[in-house]
User: What shape does this take?
Amino acid sequence: MELTKDTMIYDIVAYDSGVVDLFMEIGMHCFSCPAALFETVEEACSVHGVDTDDFLEGLRAYFAENHPETETDNAE
Assistant: This one.
C-alpha cells in the first residue's frame, strides 16, 4: 500500500476499512459523501485543517501495526 499525499482516500479505505476511524478522529466525517472518497489525502487534510505529513505519519503507523507485511512508501 503506497501512502503519499496523493493517495486516494478510496484506495486506503478499500485496502483496510479500519482506517476510517483515523479519518473520523480528525474531523473527516464525510464518508457518506461519495465524492469524499475520491479526494487525495492532501485534499482531505487541507479541507479539514490537518497537517498532511502528520496525518500520513499516523496512517503509516496504523499500517505498520496492522499490516506489517505491507511496506508503505515514505517518499513524497
Observations:
- The chain has a mean pLDDT of 86.
- The helical segments are 9-15, 20-25, 41-48, 52-66.
